[in-house]
C-alpha cells in the first residue's frame, strides 16, 4: 500500500520540472498557474494511489495485446503516465499526454510524448489520433472544465478512442449535496466548494452526472467504481492524516485570490478570514 509521500526511489523516477511559471491557462484552469502546483499534484497522485489499493486503472487491460497506446488528458508533468508504465511492465506502452499549459512538461524523453492542447478543441488532424488510443485517462478536471464543456470534451475523446477502447474519468464525489445541511462544518465546506466552481461556470458535483453525459455522448458499457477516499481523520493509513488534510485544504486555499469583494456575504457563517477558515478546516480534518 502506498503512503502519501513516495519513497526517494519514486521521487528520483519522476520527471524534473522546468523552473518557468504556468502560462496561458488563467481563466481556464482554476488552480495555481505556477510551478509549485506540481508538488501538490505529485503528492495528490501518491495519496490517491494509496486509496485505490495501488490501482491506476480499474478496467482490466487486454492480456492478448502487447502494445497499448494511452492518452492522459490533463497530464501535468506526466507522473501518472510514467507510473502506469512502471506498474504494468508486461505491456509495451506508447505514452501520450495533453495539457492546456506546457510549462510543467519535463525535458523531452523518447518514451513520453506530451503536447500542449486545449481539450475543448478537437485534436488536430495532423496528429493522426482518430481511432488511435486503447485507453484514455482523465483525472480531477472539476476545476478545469465548465459544466457546458464536458459533452464537447468527451466527444473529442470518443473520436480519439479505438473501437473497443476504454476511457476512465476520475472525479471526486466531495460532500453529498443532500447531507451538508445536517452537518454544520461540512455545510461550510460545501459552500466553499460550490462557490469555487459555480462562480466560474463549473460544477463541483460533476462526478454525480458523468455517467449520464458519457451515455448521451455515445459511450457504451458505462460503469462506476467507487473508492473510499478518506481525508484527515478518515484517511486509510495513520501516516496520511496530516498530509491528506493539507492536500484537501490546499485546493481551496489557492482560490483565495479569486474571491470577489464581499465574500463574507457569499459565505454567510464562515470565519472572518479565509486563512483562518482554512486553518479551522484543517484542524477539523485532523481531529
Can you tell me about this structure?
33% of the residues lie in helices and 13% in strands. By secondary structure, it is an alpha/beta fold. Strands 3-2-1-4-5 form a five-stranded parallel sheet. Helix 3 links the parallel strand 1 (67-73) and strand 2 (92-99). The longest helix has 15 residues, at 37-51. The protein is globular, with a radius of gyration of 19 Å. It starts with 7 loop residues before the first helix and ends with a helix.
Record keyword descriptors for this entry:
9 helices, alpha/beta, 5 strands, 287 residues, five-stranded parallel beta sheet, disordered N terminus
Order of helices and strands: HHEHEEEHEHHHHH
Shape from CA axes? globular
Task: Note the main sheet.
Answer: 5 strands, parallel
Structural class: alpha/beta
State the share of residues found in helices, binned by percent. 25-40%
State Rg. 19 Å
Cα(first) to Cα(last) distance is: 23 Å
- Tell me the strand percentage band: 5-15%
- The whole-number mean of residue pLDDT values reads 77
**Helical element count?**
9
Number of strands: 5
Low-confidence stretches: 1-27, 264-278
Give the spatial strand order of the biggest sheet. Answer: 3-2-1-4-5
Task: Itemize the secondary structure elements and their pairings.
Elements: H1 8-13, H2 37-51, E1 67-73, H3 79-87, E2 92-99, E3 113-116, E4 133-139, H4 150-160, E5 161-170, H5 184-198, H6 210-217, H7 241-253, H8 263-266, H9 274-286
Parallel strand pairs: 1-2, 1-4, 2-3, 4-5
Helix pairs in contact: 4-6, 7-9
Amino acid at each position: 500500500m502506498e503512503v502519501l509521500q513516495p519513497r526517494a526511489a519514486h521521487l528520483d523516477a519522476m520527471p524534473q520540472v522546468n523552473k518557468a511559471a504556468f502560462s496561458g491557462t488563467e481563466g481556464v484552469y482554476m488552480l495555481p498557474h505556477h510551478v509549485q502546483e506540481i508538488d501538490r499534484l505529485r503528492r495528490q497522485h501518491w495519496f490517491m494511489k494509496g486509496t485505490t489499493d495501488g490501482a491506476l486503472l480499474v478496467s482490466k487491460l487486454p492480456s492478448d495485446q502487447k502494445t497499448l497506446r494511452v492518452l492522459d488528458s490533463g497530464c501535468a508533468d506526466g507522473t501518472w503516465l510514467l507510473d502506469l508504465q512502471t506498474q504494468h511492465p508486461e505491456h509495451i506502452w506508447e505514452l501520450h499526454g495533453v495539457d492546456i499549459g506546457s510549462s510543467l512538461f519535463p525535458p523531452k524523453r523518447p518514451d513520453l510524448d506530451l503536447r500542449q492542447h486545449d481539450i475543448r478543441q478537437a485534436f488536430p488532424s495532423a496528429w493522426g489520433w482518430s481511432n488511435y488510443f486503447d485507453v484514455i485517462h482523465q483525472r480531477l478536471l472539476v476545476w478545469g472544465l465548465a459544466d457546458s464543456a464536458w459533452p464537447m470534451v468527451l466527444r473529442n475523446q470518443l473520436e480519439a478512442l479505438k473501437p473497443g477502447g476504454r476511457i476512465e474519468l476520475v472525479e471526486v464525489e466531495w460532500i453529498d449535496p443532500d447531507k451538508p445541511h445536517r452537518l454544520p462544518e461540512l455545510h461550510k465546506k460545501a459552500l466553499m466548494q460550490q462557490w469555487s466552481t459555480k462562480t466560474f461556470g463549473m460544477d463541483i458535483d460533476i462526478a454525480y452526472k458523468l455517467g449520464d453525459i458519457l451515455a448521451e455522448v455515445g459511450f457504451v458499457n458505462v460503469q462506476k467504481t467507487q473508492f473510499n477516499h478518506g481525508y484527515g481523520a478518515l484517511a486509510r493509513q495513520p501516516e496520511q492524516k496530516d498530509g491528506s488534510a493539507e492536500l484537501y485544504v490546499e485546493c481551496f486555499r489557492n482560490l483565495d485570490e479569486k474571491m470577489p469583494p464581499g465574500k463574507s456575504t457569499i459565505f454567510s457563517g464562515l470565519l472572518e478570514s479565509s486563512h483562518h477558515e482554512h486553518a479551522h478546516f484543517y484542524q477539523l480534518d485532523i481531529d
